[in-house]
Amino acid sequence: MPAYDNEGATISLEDVRADTPSTIQELRDRRREFKTQKSTVASRREQAVCVRNAFKKYGSKKNPNIILDGLNMTVPKGAIYGLLGASGCGKTTLLSCIVGRRRLNSGDIWVLGGRPGSPGSGVPGPRIGYMPQEIALFGEFTIRETMIYFGWIAGMNNEDIKVRSEFMISLLQLPDPERFVKNLSGGQMRRVSFAAALLHDPELLILDEPTVGVDPVLRQSIWDHLVNISNGGRTTVIITTHYIDETKQANVIGLMRGGRFLAEESPTELIRRYQADSLESVFLKLSVLQNRGKRRRSSILADVVDKVEIPAMANPAATASEEPEIGEISGEFGDNVSIHSKSRVTVTPEYVPPVEMPAVEAQKQSIFDKIRPVKAHHMKALVWKNAMSLLRNIGLLCFIILLPVSQMFFFCVAIGHYPEELPIAIVNYEQNSSKILCDYDKEICPQNKETYEWEITNFSCRYLDFFHKRQTNLVYYPTTEEAMEAARKGKARVVMTFAANYSESLQDRMLDNRHVDDYTVNASGIQIHIDNADKQIEWMLVRDISESFMDATEHMAGICELPRRLLSIPVHFHKPVFGLKVPNLTDFAGPGVILTIIYFLAVALTSGALLAERNEGILERSLVSGITGTEILFSQLVVQIVVMLVQTIMVLLMGFVAFDLSQNGPIGWVGVLTMLTGFCGMTFGFVVATLCDTDRTATYMALGSFLPMVMLSGCIWPIEGMHATLRFISYILPLTTSTESFRSMVQRGWGIETPQVYIGFIVTVIWIFLHLTTSILLLKFKKG
Ligand SMILES: Nc1ncnc2c1ncn2[C@@H]1O[C@H](COP(=O)(O)OP(=O)(O)OP(=O)(O)O)[C@@H](O)[C@H]1O
């Protein structure tokens, strides 16, 4: 049979063979006396808390940080259990496993007769009052509102909340209940947190360092109250503290070290057994013994045998069951075995046997409870809390509402407008003057009215006259070389050269094309050198250059009383089927930009709100009090939907009314799609917040998804220009089909019945569903 050292490493009896035969014999003799107590499932269920062979580690397989190492713990009903141990020994981890917020790697936990987290166990739930180590309160609430919030969560009515809060306020000497939590001192906040845990008079009170920052007098009154509520046997208290001596009033003390308990005993018994004058000395002695145990198990036993008398470990539950022994009990000296004693003692002399508690079966859930996704009183509290946290922070609320509309404003004023004042270098060898807008007979037809002979002169001047209407910053250069030099230095976007015989060559080319030579053809064209570095500008300039030529020829045809398009290129662009005659980038990008703004602001806001709650411990506390992930998400949705409605209306007004973006379709459906996209962003925010542990990783995730989604959504560049594989990825992203659907509605005027429109709605709804499911599952299963 293996023995265990106190660090959990297995030592066989052979390991101690080096010791003297008498020591080994002594060890064997003593072991024969070690008997396991009766410990059955039934008996465990009768304890307030029963932990068996708990093993918990953090970190990777390669580099594990073992926190609980075969730990056993028994908390009888109606007892005050002081959980002591050095900082970082794993008290909080153990408590969070007990309240069902973390999972053991192996081992069993029973809390109030059930497994934490199992249906009908009531844990997490109002049967537990949990005060975490962090303050875990809403700074924007007053003390009174904090009580109302936690009271509602626990299912209390307003009258009970009022009575209980007044009692708590006077017991804990809390300041004016109308004071905001954020303005309280650290100690005052802690007391409010304590009051919130106690308010609903739970069966099991779990307090993680409630007396930190509390003065000795108040600390005493807190302990008096704990003793008082546990006296009737209805309330069980587990309390961790660093003030070891205050746990003298506990019924049982668990001294934790190295992932297990050094002892689990009543304080008076501990002091007596270890012949110490204080609990601190007991802890020290046991720690020394445990350290020595690392070196040699046999010597510990010798020391223990020499120095202390080892009594029985009382376990009230053990007598309650007649079932056969199964061989493990609450640990003592980290040994996982107990010492049999005929004289069974109670845990503490003052310990009062528990009153009858409702059997776990009595708390069975109805089918309605099982399928009901949210509880009304939880939703009431959560929605109220979320709304208050926005309304109490007017600056933040204004920022949230004005941010999207200001972004839309900046988009509309900054994007899509025609670039003006681009420097264009003009070299006009047809003129000997530095005047760019040179003279020509604007209203005189250059065709002889009798002979119909063309006498085109100074066509460069005519052309530049029309070109100047589109681009005004024309700069004169005497030679092409000088103009090119300026272009190379970035002083000109285009170099435009007219040959000395430009008009003449143009005429020959038009009228005597049978005899024109290459030189003439060449001289009849405007020579263009363009700065192609900026594609948008290049496209616009090419269009201006070509269209100015057509403007000039059409005008000339007009004054010569010829069909206007006679001299123009024989391609005619009719009124567009959809959209504007002159395409406008603002119109093209508008739908994508509107949806992107709404989507990503929703991501940022919801993930930010949830992460803040989690980092302040509020989320954890809410979950322990029985609130579900679904309720948290739905309550956020309810409040954010109102905010999003305002955001959507303002953004659409800014785009379609203030900046007159094209709007030819069903504006109601446009609004619905925008809201749905914001909704989708909110649910993605939930995924980010549940997936990421820190603000930083959440920011990286949100940013990391932002750029690819924007680039692939077709809002900057048509998806038809992408590689086929990328196009497929693009289509399944949340913003792609919705952008296309939005554009089809506002520019093409299509209705919801059109496949290109309703597909955007369908894809968005699917994404909402996927995000919600993922975040609910993550909240449910992502425990430490
Ligand atoms: N989520 C986590 N991931 C990795 N390690 C963790 C995590 N939470 C806690 N730990 C580590 O587990 C150990 C036990 O932490 P825990 O908070 O349970 O200790 P504690 O006894 O409550 O300490 P204290 O008395 O200072 O509050 C510590 O070393 C801590 O760094």
TrEMBL record:
| TM regions (residue ranges) | 588-612, 633-657, 669-691, 698-719, 757-779
PROSITE patterns found in the cross-reference section: ABC_TM2, ABC_TRANSPORTER_1, ABC_TRANSPORTER_2
Q: Which compartment or compartments is the protein found in?
A: Membrane
Please name the Pfam families in this protein's record.
ABC2_membrane_3 (PF12698), ABC_tran (PF00005)
Keyword Transmembrane helix appears in the UniProt entry: yes
Domain ABC transmembrane type-2, by residue range, is 554-782
Q: Where is the ABC transporter domain?
A: 49-283
Subcellular location, principal: membrane
One Gene Ontology MF term? ATP binding
Q: What is this protein called?
A: ABC transporter G family member 20
Question: From which organism does this entry originate?
Answer: Loxostege sticticalis (Beet webworm moth)
